[in-house]
Amino acid sequence: MRIVKAINNNVALAVNEQGHELVIMGKGVGFQKKPDDIIDDAVIEKIFVLETDELSEKLMDLLGEIPAIHLEIADEIVNYAKETFDVKISDNVYLTLTDHISFAITRHEKGMSIRNVMLWEVKKFYKDEFAIGLKALEIIHERLGVQLGEDEAGFIALHIVNARQDGQAMKTTVDMTQVVQDVLNIVTYHFNVVLDESSLNYTRFVTHLQYFAQRLLRNEIVDSGDDFLFDQVQVKYPESFACTAKIDAYLQKAHHATLTKDERVYLTLHIHRVTERNRTSE
């Protein structure tokens, strides 16, 4: 194995007998090494054989800016995911996850925290990946003594989702979150209220919206054709029913989808419940 480029004393880019570039780590592996120098196998502690030479070189560039232990932590997390959940993960995760972990640790040291607006969705729809995220927090704490919050477990989980699904699951989660947030905004502005996020009715409403958004994005919306409840809620809860018309207009414009009568009934009932306290207190 020959040196291509030494990034520091303990990390180097190398090329094997087949001509593939590898990222290697080990005490003194890059010390005073020049291109084409032969590497002593005895000093190699870890070899990262990535999918492409371009990915290996990008990882090397990253390791020139951050501590190598952050890559070791990412590797431990990926190995835990593979062994515990028997999943296939793209090598690109070594780049993205290492970069994220390093940035998260830097933010933590500066007292900066970022709220994960998709934490609810990650917990609900990606339970295995979130479990990996929680384990990642344990690994980071064990290796560095840094205790990151649950929001970071959610971010790490999304990196695993992305690596497992080539970005498709990540896109679905993002799109689903956008639908939920947009509908909540429509309700808020229609009634000119601040919804009580700690209430059970709010939790029920958001849960319904999440499942609805999931069905919508998968094109799994069906309608029973029952007009009786539709007519009833239209008369009994006219303001909440009017709000569903705005939601329907948004869905047609943004997602080329139309609310079914069933869905307008369910949404009307949820909207009435979640806004009732505000209306009765006026």
From TrEMBL:
Q: Which InterPro entries match?
A: BglG_antiterminators (IPR050661), CAT_RNA-bd_dom (IPR004341), CAT_RNA-bd_dom_sf (IPR036650), PRD (IPR011608), PRD_sf (IPR036634)
Question: What name does the UniProt record give this protein?
Answer: Transcription antiterminator BglG
Q: What is the source species?
A: Listeria booriae
Q: List the Gene Ontology MF annotations in alphabetical order.
A: RNA binding
Q: Which domain of life is it from?
A: Bacteria
| Gene Ontology biological-process annotations | regulation of DNA-templated transcription
